[in-house]
Write a structure and sequence with these properties.
By secondary structure, the protein is mainly α. It contains seven helices and no strands.
Length: 163
Amino acid sequence: MTHPGSGWAAVLERSALGTWMRQALWAYPAAEILHLVGIALVVGSVALFDLRLLGLSPQIPVSALSRHLLPWAWRGFALVVVSGLLMFAAHASAWWANPVFPVKMGLLAAAGLNRTVFHRGVYRTVNAWDQGVPPPRAAKVSGALSLVLWGGVLACGRLLAYL
């Protein structure tokens, strides 16, 4: 199915990659499984860190948790991007025309901006609140916002299949 104003999406959908993703028996399901694994790594890592920012498990140093979880989050994000692009190629026209798609991408961008602001802002003072003291308000706000944004990304991802 093609939609008006989605010329480049239709070209991508008709490409060898898009055709292969739709027609190969295991291509789309494999990409979807990899996407779910990547989501689990990203959102699981982010959620655990965000819960620490909200004040849970104050005995765990924030800096050590960050060093441990951040590489896993990036690996998961790479998996999500690659598998998401493969799935997008299969149904580019429909996804591009779906009103949920720009919302999902906007929430994803907002989550990235929140992360950047956190790491360039309040995280620079982590030595003062690394362990055993409540995180500052800015860290708590960033953690809560992150949970909401990533929850929205997940919800939009599921809604893409139904709207």
